[in-house]
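#lab-general

N.A. 3:47 PM
ok so I finally got the sequence cleaned up, no stray characters, all 264 residues accounted for. can someone with queue access submit it? mine expired

B.Y. 3:52 PM
send it over

N.A. 3:53 PM
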Amino acid sequence: MNSKNPLLVGNDISVHSDGKTLLDKVSLSIAAGEIVTIIGPNGGGKTTLIKALLGLRPITSGTVQRRTGLKIGYVPQKLVIDRTLPLTVERLMNLTQTHSHDAIIQALNETGVAQKYKDNIHTLSGGEMQRVLLARALIGKPDMMVLDEPVQGVDYVGELALYSLIETIRDKHQCGILLVSHDLHMVMRASTRVICLNTHVCCSGQPADVEKSPDYQRLFGGKSLQTMVPYSHHHSHSHDPLDAGILDTDCSCGDDHPEGHPHV
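B.Y. 4:20 PM
back already:
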């Protein structure tokens, strides 16, 4: 681990459940101003690791050390809200802690959805909802943000805009960001370090180094990150970057992917 004065350190974290090993001696650290990206196959333990680091899931062995007074903003992988529940963006922002009107508007404005303040959350597009969740994580002025696949349910253009926004948040607030993603072709440019996880840490380091790792090559079929240009989107027409695409439920791999989203 190469982070100085880390916000959070996990040492040899193992998680076992029902006779299965979900995590095997995983270590990582994250410091202020870093974007540490966790990649890996489905079932590789990415969300389990996030929950273990946050204290939301007990660990079998190992340790998690957090800096004293560390404030964390969290965007979970899935937030299921009953569609029969009338819930506005304003109420969602105040759901676990009451914030001032000005603080809510400031956070929503920073993520580009202040105009949705009074809207019912069920009327939001996928991109708008993810921006609201980012604002909710940001409002407490966290030292560290934990984002578990924060662009799910969003189309390709929306993904580009959201990843660019996450990078902007890091640059502005100098918070540490721990990011889980399948979108290797977009997150690599901004990532300080990448951890390739498949129950254990297969490889880790700077993006260019991880790309050359035989373990990465085996897991992701040798796709070159250099040929996947992040944040590049050029055309002569305009469209709403907050809009979300329709999930591709016909994908043969069994996962939900936005339409037009390349499989990796």
